[in-house]
Amino acid sequence: MHTMWKGSISFGLVNIPIKLFAATEDKDVKLRQLHKKCHTPIQYEKRCPNCDEEVSSDDIVKGVEYVKGKFVVLTDEELKELKEEHAEKTVEIIDFVSLEEIDPIYFHRSYYIGPGENGQKAYTLLREALSKSGKIGIAEITIRSKQQLAIVRVYNNCIVMETIHYPDEVRNVQDVPGLPENIEVNEKELDSAMMLIDQLTTTFNPEKFQDDYRIALQEKIEEKINQNEGRTPEERPRQNVVDLMSALQASIERTKEKTKEAQGEKAPPAEKKKTKTVRKKA
């Protein structure tokens, strides 16, 4: 498992060296866009629509659109300074709360936390304290220059950190259009719905669920591979740019020569000058 971050957890005067690992992964099948004619992957160029020209990395700066059509530019030096200023490598636990107090809408991404060098004993102490208390830690951490709020809890004998959204990142539910209000529900219909919920209530078992579409897509891909339906992009010979220019120039010169020759053949013969005969006097 690849280590994606190294630092420490601190709570009170306790400091624990740790390593961070991604706890989840995206299993989606990634489809590439190919040219229908030759099955070559499509490339995307960085282009300025205003100047109508391709732009290199050296010609690109970073900016934020603060109102429609207006941008403020941030230099690499300014971004580097801000990054260094907030490059704290510590998961600082600020509070301890009950997990039930946090609605799942706040959850973002999950990370496994492993002990760093010489951190096994302190790691075990925090893990056991969290398990025995039934509490979770509320912490702040900076990952890839982004400060994030997080919770620290125990999952299957491992300390887990889950980043959560800040309150201002969760949209106001009142902005959802068309939410029904003041609508009376029939008591019998409600009882029937509650009965159905009771009948379907069970212990959560994640192993019973699977992504049927992804599995079917993978099976279709394997089927096409087994039927030799794989495609290799057609390679077309590419002439060197310098050679191409030379060939074009040579073609132009050859055309000029032929034009001159053709004009020379059609030109009328030169008219002979008449000479006067001078007779000597006797």
Folded structure, characterized:
This protein is of the alpha+beta class and 282 residues long. It has a domain at 5-24 and 79-169: Ku70, Chain: A, Domain 2 (Beta Barrel). It is built from five helices and eleven strands, in the order E-E-E-E-E-E-H-E-E-H-E-E-E-H-H-H. It has helices spanning 76-85, 120-133, 187-200, 212-226, 241-266; strands at 5-11, 14-22, 47-48, 53-54, 62-67, 70-74, 90-97, 107-115, 136-143, 146-155, 158-164. The strands form three sheets. A seven-stranded mixed β-barrel has the order 1-2-8-11-10-9-7. A two-stranded antiparallel ribbon has the order 3-4. A hairpin with a 2-residue loop joins strand 1 (5-11) and strand 2. The longest helix is centred in the last third of the chain and has 26 residues, at 241-266. Residues 272-278 have low confidence and may be disordered.
List the helices and strands in order. Answer: EEEEEEHEEHEEEHHH
Tell me, briefly, the overall form: extended
CATH fold category name of one domain: Ku70, Chain: A, Domain 2
Please report which band the strand proportion falls in: under 5%, 5-15%, 15-25%, 25-35%, 35-45% or over 45%: 25-35%
Largest sheet, order of strands side by side? Answer: 1-2-8-11-10-9-7
Largest sheet: 7 strands, mixed, barrel
The total of beta strands comes to 11
Number of DSSP helical runs: 5
Low-confidence stretches: 272-278
Distance between the termini: 125 Å
- The CATH architecture category of one domain equals Beta Barrel
Q: Helicity level, as a percent range?
A: 25-40%
| CATH C-level of one domain | Mainly Beta
Give the class from helix and strand content and strand pairing. alpha+beta
From the alpha carbons, calculate the radius of gyration and give it in angstroms: 38 Å
What number is the mean pLDDT? 83
